[in-house]
């Protein structure tokens, strides 16, 4: 089956490549990084990678021997979906169904459809490695030092996932097949024409632009986004680091593809999620009269974004509560207060 037209991604500059010598070197590069980078062959010695080099079926057999006997969540698109694009339909619903099935059943369907040109995309997204497999992590993982990452596995046929971003830092490792990442800096969100924040294919707002057939009349600012974009073409064994909140469009390019990624945050786990604050601000502030909105903008600058000494200098030490730097205890009190307010 011929690969879908990569379109403009092939005309973009490549994500810079770095070499790492060991886990300590990788740790240092991750701590210092402010932009994406690619590491060729980072996980080339994984048994899963070796199985996938022999065939997609051997990779699936390897995974089946280590799966837990539990239902998996799987997305199934319509036959001959546009290059495997998992996206909205014309009514802004989803152009795929979400089902639950055991992994042998899902992989048997992929076995049957693997070489068919009209095969529907089948995609298992963000599956918790520890919760759904036994021994897979121990035999196939990256040493990330003191970090405590969430390890997820993504398995499926040819797919295209619209540009989106994630709060945590992300090290994405191609285990089977090939992946293409088209990556944009955080500040390009205005030029990506984002869709709804509450009705999304996978929980994050996505770009409405079709990267294989962009409509520049409808999305003219997308040209500016492309001026800042980079592309990473990854073979099995390669990895790419995507910093927190950078936008990335991801394509699985082979009949069967597997990616393992690691998400982690440099901030404490007990801090809140900024997206929740944004959602609540849309509920509570966005539709206020203009003068009130301006006042709340000033309050956010004062308490959140500037957060200078003038906010607390007139309050005695020990009496500043959540205006002091948060601790697990004060964050817990603030969270409980918010839950109570939102429940009213």
Automatic annotation (TrEMBL):
Residues 108-279 form the JmjC domain. PROSITE patterns: JMJC (PS51184). It comes from the Bacteria. Pfam families: Cupin_8. Gene3D superfamilies: Cupin. This is JmjC domain-containing protein. It comes from Sphingomonas aerophila.
């Amino acid at each position: 089956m011929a690969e879908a037209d990569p379109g403009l991604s092939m005309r973009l500059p490549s994500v810079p490549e770095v070499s790492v010598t060991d886990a300590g070197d990788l740790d240092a590069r991750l701590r210092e990084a402010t932009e994406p980078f690619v590491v060729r062959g980072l996980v080339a010695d994984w048994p899963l990678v070796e199985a996938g080099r022999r065939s997609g079926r051997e990779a699936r057999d390897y995974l089946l021997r280590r799966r837990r006997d539990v239902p998996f969540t799987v997305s199934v698109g319509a036959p001959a979906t546009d290059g495997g694009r998992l996206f909205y339909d014309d009514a802004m619903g989803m152009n795929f169904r979400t089902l639950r099935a055991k992994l042998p059943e899902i992989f048997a369907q992929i076995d049957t459809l693997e070489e068919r040109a009209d095969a529907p995309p089948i995609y298992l997204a963000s599956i918790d490695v520890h919760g759904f497999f036994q021994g897979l992590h121990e035999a196939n993982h990256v040493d990330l030092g003191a970090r405590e990452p969430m390890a997820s596995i993504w398995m499926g046929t040819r797919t295209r996932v619209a540009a989106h971003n994630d709060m945590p830092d992300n090290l994405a490792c191609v285990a089977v097949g090939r992946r293409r990442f088209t990556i944009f800096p955080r500040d390009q969100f205005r030029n990506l024409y984002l869709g709804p924040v509450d009705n999304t294919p996978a929980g994050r707002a996505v770009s409405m632009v079709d990267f294989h057939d962009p409509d520049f009349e409808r999305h003219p600012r997308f040209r500016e986004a492309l001026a800042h974009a980079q592309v990473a073409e990854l073979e099995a064994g390669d990895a790419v680091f995507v910093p927190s909140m950078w936008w990335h469009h991801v394509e699985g390019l082979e009949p069967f593809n597997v990616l393992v990624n690691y998400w982690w945050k440099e901030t404490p786990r007990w801090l809140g999620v900024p997206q929740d604050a944004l959602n609540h601000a849309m509920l509570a502030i966005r539709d206020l009269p203009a003068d009130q909105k301006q006042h709340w903008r000033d309050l956010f600058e004062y308490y959140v974004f500037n957060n200078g000494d003038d906010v607390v200098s007139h309050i005695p030490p020990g009496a500043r509560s959540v205006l002091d730097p948060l601790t697990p205890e004060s964050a817990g009190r603030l969270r409980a207060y918010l839950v109570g307010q939102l429940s009213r």
